[in-house]
Amino acid sequence: MPTTTNKDYYATLGVKKTASPEEIRKAFRKAARRYHPDVNPGDKKAEEKFKEISEANDILSDEKKRKVYDQLGFYSDQIDPAQAEAYARQQSAGGGGRSQVDFDGFDFSGFGGPGHQASQQTGAGWGSFKDIFSGIFSGAQHPQQPHGPQPGTDLEYQATVDFWTAIRGGQARLMVNRQETCPTCHGQAHTGGVMQCPECNGTGQVTQMGGRMKFNIPCPRCNGTGRASNMCATCHGEGTVTRSESVEFRIKPGTRDGQRIRLQGKGNAGINGGPAGDLFLIVRTGMHPVFTRVGDDIQLTVPVTVAEASLGAKVDVPTIDGRAQLKIPPGTQNGQKLRLRERGVENAQRPEQRGDQIVTIEVVVPHLQDERSREIMRELAKLNNQDPRVALFEKL
Ligand SMILES: [Zn+2]
Ligand SMILES: [Zn+2]
């Protein structure tokens, strides 16, 4: 009979056997981020690894499943947690140690058959074990549907939107790799024909080690029927195929960097009629050579002359709606910030509300080319002989 090997789910997730649910959750998320098929398109090894960690997480993140797994060293839906516990208790209370009761090589399915070797070798202890196990695999006679409808998973993509589209709104496009329902088998994963199950060679049972015992459990691939449907060649039995698709989406005016857009049903297709997942787009807004966007505000640096800064002036500055006049008060300093109210970006949630434009003043010092200008500057210095460094020395 074919044997399936036990999997070390703890090693797969890289956690200790004593790991808390929180530690398991964290380890899974970390590994999932690394091996997710979306991050490794076309990488079969990563896909395999992703399946392994998903399976490990499925068992270890479920308190009941983990309990069964901890007690038996494997997990099967057919095993009742209470009975697994009873088995574990019985095993630890084993009555005198291993020399008397050695489970090695014991084929449970054969127990009780006429003239069976095991019963003669191991003696009276077996009766109680048989009682414990008689109910454990009771599900085997009623194989479940192998796969019911399963919803598709969500997808997350970053979508870069140019500076102006994010501010004014519009349409944008993005190429997305998503799993679609397989066109050959219409998501059924098989083509209708029936063949012998390759996992159990048609016997319907596989052997699995549980602690020091061997268990025969219904084959997980065919649920004990021994027959498997002919796998669809197009999707290799997945029910879905990966396709690149150009997705168009609407950008609201005022969309900010990091904003999430949800496109319902644009995630991966479901299996066996399950609903599709959603597509989440994380918007990355583009840069502009002059304007810097901070939330709904626009920041801008505007150079002014010494005369404009000291005497005051009205200067034209660019805004996202075109030119606007900015009043420079007399005595404006380099680096000072002036505000143009409601000249910023329209708020995506409250369109009647706008941000401001914040102008940082940059005083440009003239390079004096002629003697007359230098004379005037010296004259000016004489008339205004304040020392701007006084405050520095006062604080020493
Ligand atoms: Zn298919
Ligand atoms: Zn099978």
Give the SSE layout.
Layout: E1 3-4, H1 9-13, H2 21-35, H3 44-60, H4 63-72, H5 81-92, H6 117-122, H7 126-134, E2 155-161, H8 163-168, E3 170-181, E4 190-196, E5 205-210, E6 213-218, E7 227-231, E8 240-251, E9 260-263, E10 279-285, E11 292-294, E12 297-305, H9 306-311, E13 313-319, E14 322-328, E15 337-340, E16 357-364, H10 371-383, H11 390-394
Parallel strand pairs: 1-5, 2-10, 12-16
Antiparallel strand pairs: 3-8, 4-7, 5-6, 9-10, 11-12, 13-14, 15-16
This protein binds zinc ion (ZN) (2 copies).
The termini sit apart by 89 Å
Give the overall shape: elongated
State mean pLDDT (0 to 100 scale). 82
Order of helices and strands: EHHHHHHHEHEEEEEEEEEEHEEEEHH
Q: What structural category arises from helix and sheet content?
A: alpha+beta
Fraction in beta strands: 25-35%
**Rg, Å, rounded:** 36 Å
* SS elements, strand count: 16
- Compute the number of helices: 11
User: Any low-confidence stretches, pLDDT <50, length ≥5?
Assistant: 94-145
Can you list the ligands bound to this structure? zinc ion
The quaternary state of the protein chains shown equals single chain
Summarize the structure.
This protein has 396 residues and is an alpha+beta fold. The chain has helices at 9-13, 21-35, 44-60, 63-72, 81-92, 117-122, 126-134, 163-168, 306-311, 371-383, 390-394; strands at 3-4, 155-161, 170-181, 190-196, 205-210, 213-218, 227-231, 240-251, 260-263, 279-285, 292-294, 297-305, 313-319, 322-328, 337-340, 357-364.
